[in-house]
Amino acid sequence: MSATQLRQEALAGMSDLRARYPEQFSIGWARRLPRIVIPLLLVALAGYAFVTLDVSPERFWRGLGRLGTLIVPMFPPDPGPRLWPLFEAMGETLAIAFLGTLTAAVLAFPFALLAAKNVIPNIFVHFGVRRVFDVIRSIDVLIWALMWISVVGLGPFAGVLAVATSDFGSFGKLFSEAIEATDRKAAEGVAASGGSRLHQVRFGLLPQVLPVIASQILYFFESNTRSATIIGIVGAGGIGVYLSEAIRVLELQELLFTILMILVVVSIIDFVSTRLRMSIIGRQRIEM
Asked: What's the pLDDT tens digit per position in 117-158?
């Protein structure tokens, strides 16, 4: 029997089933209504957003012409007399990202143990610690930068504190989830051999979770390199200070050189970080 004949017989059988059990193949209004209402709601929300946000295609097309007059004077990129200060500022940005990420990871890890249900079964402890993580990570790093600038003043120290504070909440949540996802058999084996609760964490839990945590730290360092650039614009040190000044005084060639330098550095960090993370989690070896 050919495939065409099999298909015709199957369709014939389907028609017979539809005729014998029509109620099983009919789609009631209870199932049809969400399929109609949800798309209409999405369209209505999009229309409302267009109106309230004053989205105007006419303004967009008019602005594209101005964008061209802004981009053309950027070429060729030229740092002017600030080549070395720009390199120093880029190094400062990397230092802010590195120190902020490292500080957040070191501080978050013990609190992540408190937030993990398989380490601290007390619901009041792990629930309370998790809510603290939620509150901290719900505030953007830019807001933290503005707050720390008002506390410790302008400069890279405020940037380090902003990155560390913002990442503390994120690391705490991710670390605690990684700890909870570990296999309990290793810790149970340590306990069966007479190990204490601390030994269970040290020898049964940490070897499983450390590669995941290291991978997350590398990913956040890569992301924080970009964040450290942004917080510099509000006065938290780094290359963002020069970026903001170039935009303000319309030094467009220097602005393009700074942007390209940031892109190159972020690309290099992204490449190296990705290779290291893949190597740590065992999916790919480093090929430098």
From this structure: 888 888 889 899 999 999 999 999 989 999 999 999 988 999
Compute CA distances 94 → 167, 173, 224, 229, 266, whole Å: 16, 24, 9, 9, 10
Q: How confident is the model at residue 283 (pLDDT cuts 50, 70, 90)?
A: low
What span, in angstroms and rounded, lies between the C-alpha atoms of 188 and 201?
10
- Residue 51 to residue 94: CA distance in whole angstroms: 41
Instruction: Give the span between the Cα atoms of 232 and 158, in whole angstroms.
Output: 10
Using omega within 30 degrees of 0 as the cis cutoff, is the peptide bond preceding 76 cis?
A: yes
Measured CA distances, 40 to 32, 35, 37, 45, 148 (Å): 13, 9, 5, 9, 45
Q: Would you say 112 and 172 are in contact if contact means Cβ atoms under 8 Å apart?
A: yes
End-to-end CA gap in the chain: 57
> Do residues 95 and 156 touch, judged by C-beta distance below 8 A?
yes
**Contact predicate 237/95, CB 8 Å:** no
Which residue carries 């957003």 as its tokens?
49
Judged by phi (left if over 0) then psi (alpha if -120 to 50, else beta), residue 123 lies in alpha
* pLDDT at residue number 288: 41
